[in-house]
């Protein structure tokens, strides 16, 4: 019997006239993940994608595609000709001896001689007859065997949950302000799950921040690239601008001033790489720069929309996602970023725009040149 992987999607099925675009993008993204498997053939079916193969290991294929956004479930299926003899034999091959079971059938081909309930009854009877210890349980079965009869029949029992969401690149590009902390990688992941391709900006203040701190961010970016391939990391030198602020500005405004200049730099990079939004890992009230007033002060320097997918989440919720996507252990490595190192002891938590602008005026004569220099000297890392 031939084996095939059935990829089913959730939200894509709700799309209207543009549904084909999302389906085609998902198919292409799956194909890109499986490009090294020369025996693989991918085709679109009705409300799903089918992965056909000859000799490749099925579990290896699943491992390659299970993190592709847009996939709700992956099922290991047998493909047989649409006749009861083959359908019964296929279901029997999947039946796990000793377990209570239930047969669920769907007859897509109305020319098939048996209705959906009749298919289930006949296949169930076949298994009961062949396995004397077998028992049917229609309410809480230990195993469900599903049968779909179309031009051919698909039989499967095990479905692996995917990441769901929307296929990468269907929602444009966003620039993520990526630090070495827990929150920003999760924010990038969440926007990638909504179909965004990612670019990331990391602000490096050598010699104050270490090579290990930079490598930590590179490792986090590589993790995110595993979910949204094509990520590009910009490592921006931030030392001169930071030193200028430390020398001339009121220290309690330092955090908000740094954030505003980071947003300006990130936005310039966003325009360069044709991205439509900035993404941050801010969670309301978590730290001084994440009060309503502070967020308003940083927003004031942006013309692009700023997406904050974590804004209503608490730290425990964010940590749970970080652990799930494999970034948590890297994020907690003890290498501090430029914001942490230069965070004032008593930061301004409710800044007024006019006061912030007064502080910025103290470095205005050099700031624009340093911004342009930081953008032009950014190190670009592709994965």
Structural notes for this entry:
This protein is an alpha/beta fold and 383 residues long. The chain has 2 domains: 2-161, VC0802-like, CATH 3.30.2130.30; 173-382, Rossmann fold (3-Layer(aba) Sandwich), CATH 3.40.50. Helix content is 40%, strand content 21%. The protein is built from 14 helices and 14 strands. The strands form 2 sheets. It has an 8-stranded mixed beta sheet with strand order 2-3-1-4-8-7-5-6. A 6-stranded mixed beta sheet has the order 13-12-9-10-11-14, with helices on both faces. Helix 9 links the parallel strand 12 and strand 13 (306-307). Helix 5 packs across helix 10 and helix 8 (254-272) crosses helix 9 (292-299). It is elongated. The model has no long low-confidence stretch (mean pLDDT 95).
Key words describing this protein structure:
single chain; 383 residues; alpha/beta; VC0802-like; Rossmann fold; 2 domains; eight-stranded mixed beta sheet; six-stranded mixed beta sheet; 14 helices
Describe what is shown at a glance:
By secondary structure, the chain is of the alpha/beta class. It is 40% helix and 21% strand.
Provide the helix percentage.
40-55%
Q: Order of strands across the widest beta sheet?
A: 2-3-1-4-8-7-5-6
Report the uncertain regions: none
Describe the main β-sheet briefly.
8 strands, mixed
Gap between N and C termini? 39 Å
CATH structural architecture of the largest domain: 3-Layer(aba) Sandwich
Structural class: alpha/beta
The CATH topology label of the largest domain is: Rossmann fold
